[in-house]
Amino acid sequence: MFDMPRLLIVMSAPAQKLPDGRLRLDVKFLEGLPQHADSWDGPVECLLWEGATAIPFGRDCDPAQLTVPITVLPAGMRLQSAHLSGADAILASADLFLTHDLPAIVDARIPIVYTIEYTLKTRLDILRLGKASPVRKLRSALWLLNTERRMRRAFRAAAAIQCNGFPAHDAYRGMTRDAMLFLDGRMTDRMFATAADQATRKTRLQDGHPLRLVNFGRLERMKGAQDLLPFARKLKELNFPFRLDIFGTGELEAEIRDSITRNSLADCVTLHPPAEFATELVPWLRENADIFLSCHRQDDPSCAYIEAMGCGLPVLGYDNAMWSGLLLASRAGWSVPLGDVGRLAGRLTELGRDDIAMASDAALDYAKAHDFETEFAARMTHLREVVARR
User: Fold this and answer.
1) Pairing label, strands 58-61, 89-93
2) Which letter does DSSP use for residue 386 in this model?
3) Short-list 116, 121, 126, 123, CA closest to 168
4) By residue range, what is the domain housing residue 208?
5) CB-based burial of residue 367 (10 Å sphere; 0-12 exposed, 13-18 middle, 19+ buried)?
6) For residue range 163-209, what is the model confidence (pLDDT) as tens digits?
7) Which of 272, 277, 275, 319 is closest to 294 using CA atoms?
8) Could you tell me which of 120, 25, 4, 121 has the C-alpha nearest to residue 71?
9) Domain CATH for 54
10) Is the domain of 177 the same as that of 194?
11) What does the buried/exposed string (b/e) look like for 178-201 if buried means 16 or more CB atoms within 10 Å of the residue's CB?
Protein backbone atom coordinates (compact mmCIF):
# COMPACT_ATOMS: atom_id res chain seq x y z
CA MET A 1 0.00 0.00 0.00
CA PHE A 2 2.46 2.62 1.23
CA ASP A 3 6.19 2.30 1.73
CA MET A 4 6.15 4.48 4.85
CA PRO A 5 2.50 4.85 5.93
CA ARG A 6 1.82 7.87 8.09
CA LEU A 7 -0.19 6.97 11.17
CA LEU A 8 -2.40 9.61 12.74
CA ILE A 9 -3.48 8.89 16.32
CA VAL A 10 -6.60 10.75 17.43
CA MET A 11 -6.79 10.48 21.20
CA SER A 12 -9.09 11.38 24.08
CA ALA A 13 -6.19 12.03 26.49
CA PRO A 14 -6.59 15.25 28.53
CA ALA A 15 -4.44 18.19 27.42
CA GLN A 16 -3.83 21.75 28.61
CA LYS A 17 -1.92 24.50 26.84
CA LEU A 18 0.21 26.43 29.33
CA PRO A 19 1.03 30.16 29.05
CA ASP A 20 4.72 29.44 28.39
CA GLY A 21 3.93 27.27 25.35
CA ARG A 22 4.35 23.95 27.10
CA LEU A 23 1.68 21.28 27.35
CA ARG A 24 0.35 19.54 30.42
CA LEU A 25 -0.44 15.95 29.49
CA ASP A 26 -1.45 12.77 31.27
CA VAL A 27 1.57 10.76 32.42
CA LYS A 28 0.17 7.44 31.22
CA PHE A 29 -0.43 8.94 27.78
CA LEU A 30 3.07 10.41 27.66
CA GLU A 31 4.66 7.10 28.58
CA GLY A 32 2.71 5.17 25.95
CA LEU A 33 3.03 7.56 23.02
CA PRO A 34 6.71 6.82 22.17
CA GLN A 35 5.82 3.13 21.96
CA HIS A 36 3.67 3.90 18.92
CA ALA A 37 6.58 5.61 17.17
CA ASP A 38 8.93 2.72 17.98
CA SER A 39 6.47 0.09 16.75
CA TRP A 40 5.29 1.72 13.53
CA ASP A 41 7.18 1.58 10.23
CA GLY A 42 6.57 5.18 9.31
CA PRO A 43 5.90 8.63 10.74
CA VAL A 44 3.45 8.99 13.62
CA GLU A 45 1.54 12.10 14.62
CA CYS A 46 -1.06 12.71 17.32
CA LEU A 47 -4.16 14.86 17.56
CA LEU A 48 -5.68 15.92 20.90
CA TRP A 49 -8.22 18.42 22.16
CA GLU A 50 -7.85 21.05 24.83
CA GLY A 51 -10.40 21.30 27.58
CA ALA A 52 -9.32 19.39 30.70
CA THR A 53 -9.87 21.51 33.81
CA ALA A 54 -7.46 19.37 35.82
CA ILE A 55 -5.08 16.51 35.10
CA PRO A 56 -4.44 14.76 38.46
CA PHE A 57 -1.62 12.59 37.09
CA GLY A 58 -0.17 15.17 34.71
CA ARG A 59 3.26 16.26 33.55
CA ASP A 60 4.38 19.49 31.88
CA CYS A 61 6.40 19.04 28.70
CA ASP A 62 7.91 20.95 25.81
CA PRO A 63 6.14 19.90 22.57
CA ALA A 64 9.41 20.28 20.65
CA GLN A 65 11.01 17.57 22.80
CA LEU A 66 8.34 14.93 22.20
CA THR A 67 9.15 12.00 19.94
CA VAL A 68 5.68 12.19 18.40
CA PRO A 69 4.42 15.57 17.11
CA ILE A 70 1.20 16.61 18.86
CA THR A 71 -1.45 18.97 17.57
CA VAL A 72 -3.86 20.29 20.20
CA LEU A 73 -7.18 21.54 18.87
CA PRO A 74 -9.49 23.92 20.75
CA ALA A 75 -12.03 22.20 22.97
CA GLY A 76 -15.02 20.91 21.04
CA MET A 77 -13.69 21.73 17.57
CA ARG A 78 -15.12 19.45 14.91
CA LEU A 79 -12.66 17.47 12.84
CA GLN A 80 -12.08 18.73 9.32
CA SER A 81 -10.36 17.09 6.39
CA ALA A 82 -7.43 19.51 6.77
CA HIS A 83 -6.68 18.03 10.22
CA LEU A 84 -6.25 14.62 8.61
CA SER A 85 -4.23 15.65 5.59
CA GLY A 86 -1.49 13.18 4.68
CA ALA A 87 -2.68 10.37 6.93
CA ASP A 88 -2.38 6.86 5.51
CA ALA A 89 -4.04 5.20 8.50
CA ILE A 90 -5.97 6.53 11.49
CA LEU A 91 -6.12 5.08 15.00
CA ALA A 92 -8.89 6.95 16.82
CA SER A 93 -10.50 6.80 20.24
CA ALA A 94 -14.24 6.24 19.90
CA ASP A 95 -14.67 7.25 23.53
CA LEU A 96 -14.32 10.80 22.20
CA PHE A 97 -17.52 11.68 20.35
CA LEU A 98 -15.69 14.11 18.07
CA THR A 99 -14.11 11.15 16.25
CA HIS A 100 -17.42 9.65 15.15
CA ASP A 101 -17.48 11.83 12.02
CA LEU A 102 -14.23 10.38 10.70
CA PRO A 103 -15.77 7.97 8.17
CA ALA A 104 -17.65 10.87 6.59
CA ILE A 105 -14.57 13.05 6.04
CA VAL A 106 -11.84 10.48 5.35
CA ASP A 107 -11.11 8.94 1.97
CA ALA A 108 -12.61 5.45 1.96
CA ARG A 109 -9.22 4.00 1.00
CA ILE A 110 -7.71 5.15 4.31
CA PRO A 111 -8.34 2.59 7.06
CA ILE A 112 -9.83 3.81 10.33
CA VAL A 113 -9.27 1.66 13.40
CA TYR A 114 -11.22 2.70 16.47
CA THR A 115 -10.33 1.97 20.08
CA ILE A 116 -13.14 1.78 22.61
CA GLU A 117 -13.26 1.43 26.41
CA TYR A 118 -16.65 2.54 27.72
CA THR A 119 -19.92 0.86 26.77
CA LEU A 120 -23.24 2.68 26.81
CA LYS A 121 -24.12 0.87 30.04
CA THR A 122 -20.91 2.09 31.66
CA ARG A 123 -21.57 5.67 30.59
CA LEU A 124 -25.12 5.55 31.94
CA ASP A 125 -23.89 4.04 35.22
CA ILE A 126 -21.32 6.81 35.59
CA LEU A 127 -24.05 9.37 34.91
CA ARG A 128 -26.27 7.77 37.53
CA LEU A 129 -23.49 7.90 40.13
CA GLY A 130 -22.92 11.62 39.54
CA LYS A 131 -24.39 14.54 41.47
CA ALA A 132 -26.32 16.25 38.66
CA SER A 133 -30.03 16.98 39.03
CA PRO A 134 -32.55 14.46 37.65
CA VAL A 135 -33.40 16.81 34.78
CA ARG A 136 -29.76 17.20 33.77
CA LYS A 137 -29.23 13.45 34.07
CA LEU A 138 -32.17 12.85 31.74
CA ARG A 139 -30.81 15.29 29.17
CA SER A 140 -27.37 13.72 29.41
CA ALA A 141 -28.81 10.23 29.02
CA LEU A 142 -30.62 11.27 25.84
CA TRP A 143 -27.39 12.77 24.52
CA LEU A 144 -25.54 9.53 25.31
CA LEU A 145 -28.15 7.48 23.46
CA ASN A 146 -27.84 9.66 20.37
CA THR A 147 -24.04 9.56 20.56
CA GLU A 148 -24.14 5.77 20.85
CA ARG A 149 -26.10 5.53 17.60
CA ARG A 150 -23.53 7.72 15.83
CA MET A 151 -20.67 5.69 17.25
CA ARG A 152 -22.17 2.41 16.10
CA ARG A 153 -22.53 3.82 12.58
CA ALA A 154 -18.86 4.79 12.71
CA PHE A 155 -17.91 1.28 13.83
CA ARG A 156 -19.77 -0.28 10.92
CA ALA A 157 -17.85 1.97 8.53
CA ALA A 158 -14.45 1.37 10.17
CA ALA A 159 -11.85 -1.14 9.07
CA ALA A 160 -11.55 -2.57 12.60
CA ILE A 161 -11.98 -1.84 16.29
CA GLN A 162 -9.73 -2.55 19.27
CA CYS A 163 -11.67 -3.13 22.49
CA ASN A 164 -10.07 -2.39 25.84
CA GLY A 165 -11.64 -4.84 28.25
CA PHE A 166 -14.28 -7.55 28.21
CA PRO A 167 -17.38 -5.31 28.39
CA ALA A 168 -16.49 -3.29 25.29
CA HIS A 169 -15.54 -6.42 23.35
CA ASP A 170 -18.81 -8.11 24.27
CA ALA A 171 -20.84 -5.02 23.34
CA TYR A 172 -19.22 -4.02 20.05
CA ARG A 173 -17.47 -6.97 18.44
CA GLY A 174 -20.50 -7.54 16.21
CA MET A 175 -20.24 -4.03 14.77
CA THR A 176 -17.33 -4.86 12.47
CA ARG A 177 -15.74 -7.87 10.82
CA ASP A 178 -12.51 -7.30 12.77
CA ALA A 179 -12.61 -6.66 16.53
CA MET A 180 -9.75 -7.48 18.87
CA LEU A 181 -9.68 -7.62 22.67
CA PHE A 182 -6.83 -6.16 24.70
CA LEU A 183 -6.21 -5.35 28.36
CA ASP A 184 -4.59 -1.99 28.95
CA GLY A 185 -2.01 -1.63 31.71
CA ARG A 186 1.42 -0.28 32.54
CA MET A 187 3.17 -3.37 33.87
CA THR A 188 6.39 -4.12 32.02
CA ASP A 189 8.58 -7.18 32.44
CA ARG A 190 10.84 -5.62 35.09
CA MET A 191 7.94 -4.49 37.28
CA PHE A 192 6.33 -7.82 38.08
CA ALA A 193 6.45 -9.38 41.52
CA THR A 194 9.42 -11.71 41.91
CA ALA A 195 9.59 -15.17 43.40
CA ALA A 196 11.09 -13.57 46.51
CA ASP A 197 8.16 -11.14 46.75
CA GLN A 198 5.70 -14.02 46.51
CA ALA A 199 7.56 -16.05 49.12
CA THR A 200 7.58 -13.12 51.53
CA ARG A 201 3.85 -12.57 51.06
CA LYS A 202 3.09 -16.26 51.63
CA THR A 203 5.14 -16.26 54.82
CA ARG A 204 3.26 -13.18 56.04
CA LEU A 205 -0.05 -14.88 55.28
CA GLN A 206 0.97 -18.13 56.98
CA ASP A 207 2.16 -16.28 60.08
CA GLY A 208 -1.31 -14.84 60.57
CA HIS A 209 -0.52 -11.15 60.31
CA PRO A 210 -3.49 -8.82 59.70
CA LEU A 211 -4.44 -8.82 56.03
CA ARG A 212 -3.16 -5.77 54.17
CA LEU A 213 -5.54 -4.42 51.58
CA VAL A 214 -4.83 -1.63 49.14
CA ASN A 215 -6.80 0.59 46.80
CA PHE A 216 -5.22 3.01 44.35
CA GLY A 217 -6.48 5.37 41.67
CA ARG A 218 -8.92 8.25 41.40
CA LEU A 219 -10.98 8.85 44.53
CA GLU A 220 -14.26 9.35 42.71
CA ARG A 221 -17.76 7.93 42.89
CA MET A 222 -17.47 6.19 39.54
CA LYS A 223 -14.52 4.26 41.00
CA GLY A 224 -16.49 3.35 44.13
CA ALA A 225 -14.26 5.34 46.50
CA GLN A 226 -17.33 6.17 48.61
CA ASP A 227 -17.42 2.51 49.71
CA LEU A 228 -13.86 2.28 51.05
CA LEU A 229 -14.53 3.65 54.52
CA PRO A 230 -17.89 1.87 55.02
CA PHE A 231 -16.01 -1.33 54.15
CA ALA A 232 -13.38 -0.54 56.78
CA ARG A 233 -16.03 0.30 59.38
CA LYS A 234 -17.76 -3.01 58.73
CA LEU A 235 -14.53 -4.96 59.26
CA LYS A 236 -13.95 -3.05 62.49
CA GLU A 237 -17.45 -3.98 63.67
CA LEU A 238 -16.62 -7.61 62.92
CA ASN A 239 -13.39 -7.31 64.97
CA PHE A 240 -11.46 -8.52 61.93
CA PRO A 241 -7.79 -7.45 61.98
CA PHE A 242 -6.72 -5.65 58.80
CA ARG A 243 -4.95 -2.68 57.30
CA LEU A 244 -6.25 -0.65 54.36
CA ASP A 245 -3.92 1.67 52.47
CA ILE A 246 -5.47 4.08 49.96
CA PHE A 247 -3.37 5.85 47.32
CA GLY A 248 -4.92 8.60 45.24
CA THR A 249 -6.63 11.92 44.92
CA GLY A 250 -9.98 13.12 43.63
CA GLU A 251 -13.34 14.57 44.54
CA LEU A 252 -13.78 12.33 47.61
CA GLU A 253 -10.31 12.84 49.07
CA ALA A 254 -11.34 15.31 51.78
CA GLU A 255 -14.41 13.26 52.67
CA ILE A 256 -12.32 10.10 53.07
CA ARG A 257 -9.71 11.89 55.17
CA ASP A 258 -12.40 13.33 57.46
CA SER A 259 -14.13 9.98 57.74
CA ILE A 260 -10.92 8.28 58.88
CA THR A 261 -10.68 10.72 61.77
CA ARG A 262 -14.40 10.86 62.54
CA ASN A 263 -14.71 7.07 62.74
CA SER A 264 -11.43 6.49 64.62
CA LEU A 265 -9.95 4.42 61.80
CA ALA A 266 -6.44 5.88 61.77
CA ASP A 267 -5.07 2.72 63.39
CA CYS A 268 -6.12 0.61 60.40
CA VAL A 269 -6.69 2.96 57.42
CA THR A 270 -4.09 5.26 55.84
CA LEU A 271 -4.72 7.73 53.02
CA HIS A 272 -1.58 8.34 50.97
CA PRO A 273 -1.00 10.97 48.29
CA PRO A 274 -0.68 9.69 44.70
CA ALA A 275 2.55 7.75 44.20
CA GLU A 276 4.67 7.60 41.05
CA PHE A 277 3.62 4.33 39.48
CA ALA A 278 6.82 2.52 38.49
CA THR A 279 9.25 3.77 41.14
CA GLU A 280 6.98 4.17 44.19
CA LEU A 281 3.61 2.46 43.92
CA VAL A 282 4.64 -0.83 42.30
CA PRO A 283 7.48 -1.55 44.77
CA TRP A 284 5.15 -0.70 47.66
CA LEU A 285 2.44 -3.05 46.37
CA ARG A 286 4.88 -5.89 45.86
CA GLU A 287 6.39 -5.55 49.33
CA ASN A 288 3.46 -4.56 51.54
CA ALA A 289 0.03 -5.58 50.23
CA ASP A 290 -1.88 -8.86 50.20
CA ILE A 291 -5.13 -8.04 48.34
CA PHE A 292 -6.33 -5.32 45.98
CA LEU A 293 -9.71 -3.97 47.06
CA SER A 294 -11.86 -2.84 44.13
CA CYS A 295 -15.16 -1.06 44.71
CA HIS A 296 -15.91 -0.14 41.10
CA ARG A 297 -19.68 0.22 40.72
CA GLN A 298 -19.52 0.23 36.92
CA ASP A 299 -17.81 -1.67 34.13
CA ASP A 300 -14.89 0.54 33.08
CA PRO A 301 -11.76 -1.44 32.12
CA SER A 302 -9.59 0.05 34.84
CA CYS A 303 -5.93 -0.81 34.39
CA ALA A 304 -5.73 -1.08 38.20
CA TYR A 305 -6.96 -4.68 38.05
CA ILE A 306 -4.18 -6.02 35.85
CA GLU A 307 -1.56 -3.77 37.48
CA ALA A 308 -2.41 -4.97 40.98
CA MET A 309 -2.40 -8.57 39.75
CA GLY A 310 1.06 -8.02 38.29
CA CYS A 311 2.26 -7.13 41.78
CA GLY A 312 0.98 -10.49 43.02
CA LEU A 313 -2.29 -9.17 44.44
CA PRO A 314 -5.53 -11.08 44.01
CA VAL A 315 -8.61 -8.88 43.67
CA LEU A 316 -11.63 -8.64 45.95
CA GLY A 317 -14.31 -6.63 44.21
CA TYR A 318 -17.83 -6.11 42.99
CA ASP A 319 -19.12 -8.28 40.17
CA ASN A 320 -19.20 -5.58 37.52
CA ALA A 321 -18.83 -6.83 33.95
CA MET A 322 -15.12 -6.04 33.76
CA TRP A 323 -14.09 -7.79 36.96
CA SER A 324 -16.49 -10.68 36.31
CA GLY A 325 -14.89 -11.30 32.92
CA LEU A 326 -11.37 -10.93 34.24
CA LEU A 327 -12.10 -13.16 37.24
CA LEU A 328 -13.50 -15.87 34.98
CA ALA A 329 -10.39 -15.72 32.80
CA SER A 330 -7.83 -15.55 35.61
CA ARG A 331 -9.33 -17.14 38.76
CA ALA A 332 -7.38 -14.44 40.57
CA GLY A 333 -9.76 -13.32 43.28
CA TRP A 334 -13.34 -13.08 44.44
CA SER A 335 -16.48 -11.08 43.69
CA VAL A 336 -19.66 -10.09 45.50
CA PRO A 337 -22.88 -8.45 44.29
CA LEU A 338 -22.46 -4.89 43.06
CA GLY A 339 -22.65 -2.29 45.81
CA ASP A 340 -23.01 -4.74 48.72
CA VAL A 341 -20.40 -3.35 51.12
CA GLY A 342 -21.41 -5.72 53.90
CA ARG A 343 -20.98 -8.75 51.68
CA LEU A 344 -17.64 -7.40 50.47
CA ALA A 345 -16.38 -7.23 54.06
CA GLY A 346 -17.92 -10.58 54.90
CA ARG A 347 -16.26 -12.28 51.94
CA LEU A 348 -12.86 -11.08 53.13
CA THR A 349 -13.39 -12.64 56.55
CA GLU A 350 -14.20 -15.99 54.90
CA LEU A 351 -10.98 -16.25 52.91
CA GLY A 352 -8.45 -18.86 53.93
CA ARG A 353 -4.80 -17.86 53.90
CA ASP A 354 -3.89 -20.70 51.53
CA ASP A 355 -6.66 -19.59 49.16
CA ILE A 356 -5.24 -16.06 49.14
CA ALA A 357 -1.76 -17.38 48.37
CA MET A 358 -3.08 -19.50 45.49
CA ALA A 359 -5.05 -16.56 44.08
CA SER A 360 -1.91 -14.43 44.37
CA ASP A 361 0.01 -16.82 42.12
CA ALA A 362 -2.90 -16.99 39.66
CA ALA A 363 -3.05 -13.19 39.53
CA LEU A 364 0.65 -12.88 38.79
CA ASP A 365 0.61 -15.58 36.12
CA TYR A 366 -2.30 -13.99 34.28
CA ALA A 367 -0.86 -10.48 34.46
CA LYS A 368 2.49 -11.69 33.11
CA ALA A 369 0.70 -13.10 30.08
CA HIS A 370 -0.86 -9.68 29.48
CA ASP A 371 2.03 -7.32 30.18
CA PHE A 372 2.19 -3.93 28.47
CA GLU A 373 4.69 -5.03 25.82
CA THR A 374 2.67 -8.10 24.83
CA GLU A 375 -0.66 -6.28 24.65
CA PHE A 376 0.79 -3.31 22.81
CA ALA A 377 2.65 -5.49 20.31
CA ALA A 378 -0.57 -7.38 19.58
CA ARG A 379 -2.41 -4.11 18.96
CA MET A 380 0.26 -2.79 16.60
CA THR A 381 0.44 -6.11 14.74
CA HIS A 382 -3.32 -5.97 14.34
CA LEU A 383 -3.10 -2.39 13.07
CA ARG A 384 -0.41 -3.29 10.53
CA GLU A 385 -2.51 -6.21 9.30
CA VAL A 386 -5.51 -3.93 8.83
CA VAL A 387 -3.43 -1.44 6.85
CA ALA A 388 -1.91 -4.21 4.73
CA ARG A 389 -5.38 -5.39 3.70
CA ARG A 390 -6.02 -1.98 2.14
Assistant:
1) unpaired
2) H
3) 116
4) 189-368
5) buried
6) 999 999 999 999 998 999 999 999 999 999 999 999 999 999 999 99
7) 319
8) 25
9) 3.40.50
10) no
11) ebbbbbbbbbbeebbbeeebbebb
